[in-house]
Amino acid sequence: MSVGSCPGVGVDLGGTKIEIIALAGDGAVLDRERRSTPAGDYAATLDTMAALIELIEPITGPINRVGVGTPGALSAATGLIKNSNSTVLNGRALDRDLEKRLKRPVRLENDANCFALSEAVDGAAAGAATVFGVILGTGVGGGLVVDRRLVRGRNHVAGEWGHNPLPWARASDLPGAPCYCGKSGCIETYLSGAGLARAYHSASGRELAAHTIARAADEGDPAALACLEQYADQLARGLATVINVLDPEAIVLGGGLSNITRLYREVPPLIGRYAFSDRITTPILKARHGDSSGVRGAAWLWQSTRERSSA
C-alpha cells in the first residue's frame, strides 16, 4: 500500500525502545516494528531509526515523510533539542540530522504532544474541539490540541503544566522535592511515579513502586489509601488550573499512573472544589490507545501540526 493513502509513518523515540508505525487513512495499523534504543549513542540511534524505515517500506510503499515523537522539544531559540531526559539528545539538531540520515522530510514533536494529538484525532477525545492530554508517568507532561491541530506555543512549551508549582499547596505538601529542572515543588515532583512512591515511603517507611501502591490500596493498605487520596487531590488541583486557563472540552490521561482506575471516579468531583466555576463538567478520560498513543500521534503529525505563521 502506498504511503499516499496513509497519514504518514510515525516513530516514537523512547529511552529504552524505538517504535515505528504505519497507519491507514482510517487509523488502522498497516505495520509496526520496534527495536531497543542504543543507550547513550546518538549516531547509533539515527541508524536504528533508518533501519526501521527500511524494514517497513516494502509494506507501505515509498515513505515520503516521517513524524517523530521524542522526549524534550526543539528550542525555538536554537533549533536544538532541550529538556530531554534522554540526555544524549540535548543540544542536538535532531530533526536536521534525521532528515540527512533518512533522506526524507521529518516533522519532530515532543512525545507528550504526540500523545495528545493521537487521543484527539481518533482516541478517547475524538470529536472534542479542544483537548488537553496529560502524561502521568516517570515525568508529568502534557499537550494541547485545538481542532485536531497541535498548539506548540511561541516558546515550544505549551502543555508543560508539570513544571508549575503545585497549586493551593498545604503545609503537608511543603517544601516540595527538588525537580530535575532546577526548581523545587513542581507538580511533577508530586504526581510522577517517583512522587507517589516518595509519599508512600514517607507515610509507611516502605519502598514500593507506584503500581504496587495502587494495588496495595485496592487491598486495603491504610497508608496506600491515604497516599492515593492525597494524590487524587493534588491531581485535581493541578487540573483545575488547566481548566481555569484553557477550559478544554476534554482531558485525557496517559502514562503508567493513568491506569489507577480510582482516579476517574475520585478526581472529577475534587476539581469542582478548585476550578473557578459553579459547575465543572469536563470529562477526565483514559487514553484509548494506551502506550501506542505516542507513536500513533507521530504518524498524524504531517496532517495535524499547526505551524505558527508569525513570530
CATH topology of the largest domain: the name is Nucleotidyltransferase, domain 5
Estimated structural class: alpha/beta
Shape: globular
The chain-level mean pLDDT equals 92
**Helix fraction by DSSP (H/I, runs of at least 4):** 25-40%
| Poorly predicted residue ranges | 1-6, 306-311
CATH superfamily of the largest domain: ATPase, nucleotide binding domain
Strand order of the largest sheet: 3-2-1-4-7
Number of helical segments with 4 or more residues: 9
Number of strands: 12
Cα gyration radius (Å): 20 Å
Distance between the termini: 39 Å
**Percent of residues in beta strands:** 15-25%
Number of domains: 2
Main β sheet profile: 5 strands, mixed
Query: Which architecture of the largest domain does the CATH hierarchy give at level 2?
Result: 2-Layer Sandwich
The SSE string, one letter per element, is EEEHEEEHEHEEEHHHHEHEH
**CATH class term of the largest domain:** Alpha Beta
